[in-house]
Amino acid sequence: MKTAVxxxxxxxxxxxxxxxxxxxxxxxxVAFGGETYREEVDISAEQFYEKVKxxxxxxxxxxxxxxxxxxxxTSLRDEGYDAVISIHLSSGISGTYxxxxxxxNMVDGLKVYAYDSEISCMAQGFYAIEAAKMALDGKTxxxxxxxxxxxxxxxxxxxMVDDLAHLQRGGxxxxxxxxxxxxxxxxxxxxxxxxxxxxxxKIRTRKxxxxxxxxxxxxxxxxxxxxxxxxIHANRPDEAEQWKxxxxxxxxxVEFTISYFGPVIATHLGEGALGxxxxxx
Length: 281
Fold this sequence. Notes:
This protein is an alpha/beta fold.
């Protein structure tokens, strides 16, 4: 059985990694006024942050059309694939997973397994990378999904934003009313819970928020088992690099990489957001 792996652009997997592992990517889009850009195709993260500075209004985001999924799945079938595992950002914040599910039922001769990562960014990317490696090794879709389900049990992710206003405006923060009225100066730690973004803890400063994320990592790293981790930043490459150096020296059993919040997710988090995700490989 020949299995393809698809994910969407919000996994922010570098193109060279996607190409090497044959991961197909379907893009979400951002729109500034009347101009729409497919992230990772028409606009890079760097270009996006520049554009945000030039526009008064925040961009809007949109998911891929079902027809785009149908087109991609059909081309994979015609390339000789029997099955597709399509891994997407949390269904609690986007309809992308639902689009993959719907399209999968519209293409004959191909078994489509739509998978809700229940998260986004490089945490979702970890699932897609693992799935792709297994697919190249000839593993069955069922074996691959069982492994991703297993990864979900140890995967953790926490992030902070510089300004809660973006999340509030975009309607992507759940159960946050207690944080809002006059409390926009705090730097709450956020996480995904039951597929949506929720406040994890109230924290007053960026420095303390970063320290708290380190403490959460330390709980798992202290067990001595190998971990894979990704530092994710919204246009803060130097800060991410410094954090990586610091954490790498503290936790030799953790393999750190640096990733980023690209246009679609950064629209909701705002520039300056910083996060850390890790799992037990």
